[in-house]
Write a structure and sequence with these properties.
Pfam families: Response_reg (PF00072), Trans_reg_C (PF00486). GO terms for molecular function: DNA binding. This is DNA-binding response OmpR family regulator. Keywords: DNA-binding, Phosphoprotein, Transcription, Transcription regulation, Two-component regulatory system. It is found in: Cytoplasm. The chain is of the alpha/beta class and about 230 residues long. It folds into 2 domains: about 1-125, 3-Layer(aba) Sandwich (Rossmann fold); about 130-225, Arc Repressor Mutant, subunit A (Orthogonal Bundle), CATH 1.10.10.10. It is built from 8 helices and 14 strands. It has helices at about 10-20, 35-45, 60-70, 85-95, 105-125, 155-165, 175-185, 195-205, and strands spanning about 1-5, 25-30, 45-55, 55, 60, 75-80, 100, 130-135, 135-140, 145-150, 150-155, 175, 215-220, 225. Helix 2 packs parallel to helix 3 (about 60-70) and helix 6 (about 155-165) crosses helix 8. The protein is elongated, with a radius of gyration of 19 Å. The termini are far apart.
Length: about 230
């Protein structure tokens, strides 16, 4: 299993490469954004996971993540010394699958790499259905497009993943912990309850006729959320 590691700190890069090889991974190491872009353009289909440092001498991990997600749904983990929530949300919006701040414990990173790979495999299985729906919302999974009454709704990568989870569990109450577990690493610490609330709010603003009285993504007081079961008419 191949991992693309982009890290400009030689000490971190060599130590992480060695440790991941000991875990059975094959590593392609790039020290800058320019080399990484070449690898992504030519060989992305080889890699099962990408790990990007956010701060690079000639660019940043955000642009690399965007390039990856334009070509495929290959999982991406960010390494960064920045842990402000604005950076977390920006990375999630671009499709990042996890986010870990330096300094980090090596065993924790390896555990989270394995978690992301397992979760990616489960999501790939979910996406095999060509069409999902919640009332008036239709999800064309092969095209990764969402429509409401035939009008396309533009979602960020994480909003789309969250909607897929609800569409695969229509009528089922999902606790906040279950949502964390399904879409993020619940033990990761890079996202919190407030961030989940923000994404639920943003989804409702894009999908609901009246976001203040949601029927597509409903709140089950004291328990969590569920996708509504109904036959919508316009």
């Amino acid at each position: 299993m191949y991992i693309l590691l982009v890290e400009d700190d030689q000490t971190i890069a060599e130590g992480l490469s060695y440790s991941l090889k000991q875990e059975g991974f094959d590593i392609r190491l790039c020290a800058n954004a320019t080399d990484a872009k070449t690898v992504i353009s030519q060989d992305l289909d080889v890699f099962s996971l990408c790990i990007f440092d956010l701060s690079l001498p000639d660019g940043n991990g955000y642009e690399l993540c965007q390039l990856v997600k334009e070509k495929a749904d290959t999982p991406v983990i960010f390494l960064t010394a920045m842990d402000e929530e604005v950076n977390v949300v920006m990375g999630l919006d671009m499709g990042a699958d996890d986010y870990i701040t330096k300094p980090f414990r090596l065993r924790e990173l390896i555990s989270r790499i394995k978690t992301v790979l397992r979760r990616s495999a489960k999501q790939a299985s979910s996406f095999q259905k060509q069409m999902l729906s919640i009332g008036p919302i239709k999800i064309h999974t092969l095209e990764a497009k969402v429509y409401k009454y035939e009008e396309e709704i533009v979602l960020t990568a994480l909003e789309y993943r969250l909607l897929i989870i609800f569409a695969n569990h229509v009528g089922q109450v999902l606790t906040r912990s279950q949502l964390f577990d399904l879409i993020w690493d619940v033990g990761g610490g890079f996202v919190n309850d407030n961030t989940l609330t923000v994404y639920i709010k943003r989804l409702r603003e894009k999908l609901e006729d009246d976001p203040q009285r949601p029927v597509i993504i409903q709140t089950v007081r004291g328990l969590g959320y569920k996708a509504g079961e109904f036959h919508a008419t316009r």
